[in-house]
Amino acid sequence: MFSSPTPAPGSRALASNALRGAGLMSDRDTTMRDISDKPTGRKPATKHRPHRARAIYDVPMYDKGSSSSSRMLSSRISVDSGPSDLLSIRGASRSSTGTRPRRNAVSGGVPVGVPTANHGPSTVGRLSTKNRTVDHWYEFVKKRYDPQTKCLNLDSMADDELLRRYNLQAPGSGGGTAREAGVIFKLASRLKPPVETLSLASNNLNGHHLTYLDKYLPRIVNLSLQNNNMRMWKDLDPISARREKLLHLRELVLMGNPIREQEYLNGTSERYKREVTRRFLTLELLDQEPIAKISFDVASDGAAAGSSSVKPPDATTFPFQMGPSFIDGVDPSLVSTFLSRFFPAFDAQRPSLSDVYTPASTFSFSANTSIPARARIQGIQYSNEMPNQRKLEWKAWIENGSRNLHRLSGEKTISALHIGQQDIVQALVKLPLTKHDILGAPENFCVDAFLAGVGLLVIVHGQFIEAPSQGVRSFDRTFMLAPAPEGSRAKMNGWDVVILSDQWTIRGYSKPEAWAPGPMLVQATLDSNPPPTQRQLQNLPAEQQALLNTVPEPQRPLVLNVCGQTGLNIKYSLDCLNGNGWDLGRAVANFNQVKATLPPDAFLR
Amino acid sequence: MAANIDAVATQFVEFYYKTFDSDRTQLTSLYRDGSMLTFEGAQIAGATSITDKLVNLPFQKVLHKVTTKDAQPSSSSVASLLVSVTGLLVVDDSPNPLQFSQIFHLMPEGGSYYVFNDIFRLNYA
Q: Chain B contact for A323, CB < 8 A?
C-alpha cells in the first residue's frame, strides 16, 4: 500500500517554478553557491591550486632540506601529471626505462631483475645462515638502489629473481612479514647517500609491513605505496606524521589501494584527501596532485595591511553540500498553495484554521531553547541591528505546553498533544502571535515535500517574527497532509488538503544562510584561540617541535614569531609564511583575514 | 494512545542514535526495501542504499546529542507515527557541533517498528 514516490518527468523544474512563484525559492537556490570566492577552510577552490603549488616551490628561503632531486619530482609531477605517469611507475619494475631519461623519484625507473655477475651462491658458502641471509637481503637492496637519484625501487619484490634464488620471502605478496620488511628498511638505512625516494609499489603490503619504516628510514621524502593493500586508516599509522613518523615526507602515492579506491568509488574523494592530509602534515603531493591547502596566498599587497573594513567570515565550511528545497512525487503547486494560505491564516486568524484540521488531527510543539552556537558568535542576541532579539522570552512557549519528550514525561506530555480541531485551535490561540513572511525573502525558507504512504509529508524550515517583542525566531515544522474529502469542511472552505499531523519546533534564531544550498556552514572558532604564551612556545608538542626542526635554523625564530602572534601551530605558520613570501607583516595581516575560516587544529592548544 | 507513542518514540530515538554513533552499518535492520531517506534534498531508497549513504558520510566519529524530540500518530487508520528530533551532531570531536533536524516516519511491523521515511537536514546553526 505504500508506493514509493515516483518523480514525474520534470518535477524538479516544476517544483522550482512553483516555489519561486510562491516566493519560497529564488533563482539563486537552483545553483550551488560559488565557493571559490571565499576562503574555504580545508577545501580551497581548485583555482588556487596552481598558484599554491607555485608558492611552495618558488620561495627560495624555505629550503626544507630536500635536495634538488626531490624538487625535480615535485615540479615534474605538477607539470605533466597524467595517465602516462602511472604507466611509468608500473613499467619501472619491468626494466622498461631504457628510452626514458632517469627520473629521480617514485615514478622514476630503476632496472631490476637482472642479477649482477659478481654475486653467486658459491661466494657465501662459508658464512653462517643468518649472516648469509642478511647478505642476500643487502645484495638485493643494493641492486635496487640508484645512488645517483637516491631512489630505492622495491617494486614487485616477490617477482625478483634474486630473492627467489635465495629463497627469501618478499614482504607482502612473497609471504614475508613486518620482520622481513624491517630487515630491508634497516639495510636500506646503510645506503649512501641516504635514501630519499622509496617505492614499495605492487607488493600487497598493509600497514603492518610498514612498522619499522620510520625507525630506519625516517627522512624519506617521497614514498610510493601504489598498488598495495592499504585498507584502513590505521594502516597509515606507522607512517603518519600525527604519530611523529616520516616528518620529511613531501610526496605520497596511494593509488591502487583499497583505502583510496573505495573512497573514489563512493564519490568521497574529498574526504579521502582530507583524511590523508590530516595524517601527513608535511605532504605537498598526494597521488601526483598538489595538495590544496588553506589559501594563505589570498593576500594582495594593497589589501593585506590594515583592511579592518573587511568583515571576517563568521563561518567555515564543512565538506558537505547543502541541498535546496526538495519536492517530489506531488504537484508542487499543491504544496505552495497550502503553505501560502496556511501561514498567513496562522499569523492573522488562527481560529479559521479549524477548517483545515480534522477531528483526528494532532498538533504539538516543542521549544528548543539552546542558543545556536553561530548566532552566539555573531552576537545576534545583543546586536544593534536586531535590537528586539534581547526582548524574546521562552516563558510563553514553555508555559503553554512545550512537548519536548526529552524533558517531559507522563501526564504533561499527554496534555501537550492536542487532538482534534477544537483542542488544536484552543492551543494555537494561546501561543504568541507570529508573522511568517512566507511571501518575502525566499531564502528564509526551505521546504521538503513528498508522498509518504498515508499522505503527503511537508517539512518547512524557516523563521518568523514573534509578538510582542518583534524578535525573530527560527523553526522546523512537519505536516502530514491528506487530500480533503469531497464535501468536507476543509473542501467547502477552499482547502485542497487537510492536516493530519502538525509538529512544530521553535528555536533560537540563526540566519537563513545556515540552510542555503552549497557548502555547509559550521560555526567558526573566532577568538576562541588566544595567542600561545611564551611557555607554550617553549614546550611545543613533540610533533610540532619535530616539524620546526625540519626548517633551517635561521628561519625558526620567524616561524615562532608567527606562532606567537597568531596562535597557529608550526605547520600552519609555515604555510602562512610560505604564502606570503616570508614577510612577517604580510603573513600576520593575511592570517587576520582568513583566521575565521581556519579549522581548530590549525592552532596550538 | 499518546503515552504509548511517546514510549515508542523515546525508545526508538535512543536506540537509533546509539546505533548510529557506535556502528552505522547496523542501521540496516531499521529500514526496509520500501524505506526512503531524504538527506539534504537527496532521496535514497531501500535499506541497503540508505545504510551505504549513512556509513559513507564524511566523518569517522560522530555523537548525536538530542535537544528536543516529539512524536505524533501520523494516520488514524495505521498505527504509524512521526517523530521529530532536533539536536547537536559532534563530528570527529570538533568543538563546534553541527546542528540537525530529523524526522522519522515509523511504521508498525509485527510487534515492532521500522523507518519508512527519514528526513534529515543539517541545516541550521
A: yes
Element (H, E) at B72: strand B62-73
Residue B74 touches chain A, beta carbons under 8 Å: yes
Chain B positions touching A12 (Cβ under 8 A) are: none
Q: Which residues of B touch A457 (CB under 8 A)?
A: 103, 105, 117, 119
Tens digits of residue pLDDT in A187-211 = 999 999 999 999 999 999 999 999 9
User: How many Cβ atoms sit within 10 Å of the Cβ of residue A120?
Assistant: 11
Give me B86's grid cell: 532536533
Residue A522 has pLDDT above 70, yes or no: no
B42 touches chain A (CB under 8 A): yes
Q: Which residues of A touch B64 (CB under 8 A)?
A: none
- Which CATH architecture best describes the domain A326-515? Roll (3.10)
Is the minimum CB–CB distance between B70 and chain A shorter than 8 Å? Answer: yes
Across the interface, which of B6, B41, B82 has its CB nearest the CB of A324?
A: B41
Give the number of other CB atoms < 10 A from CB of residue A396: 17
- pLDDT of A55 > 70? The answer is no
**pTM above threshold 0.90:** no
d(CA A420, CA A95): 82
C-alpha–C-alpha distance, residues A145 and A192, integer Å: 10
Contact A335, A458 (CB under 8 A): yes
More confident residue, A393 or A24: A393
Q: Which CATH class is domain A146-290?
A: alpha beta
Nearest-neighbour CA in chain B from A502: distance (Å): 8
CATH code, B72: 3.10.450.50
Q: Do A523 and B80 touch (CB under 8 A)?
A: no
What is the count of structural domains for chain B? 1
Question: What number does CATH give the domain A530-602?
Answer: 1.10.8
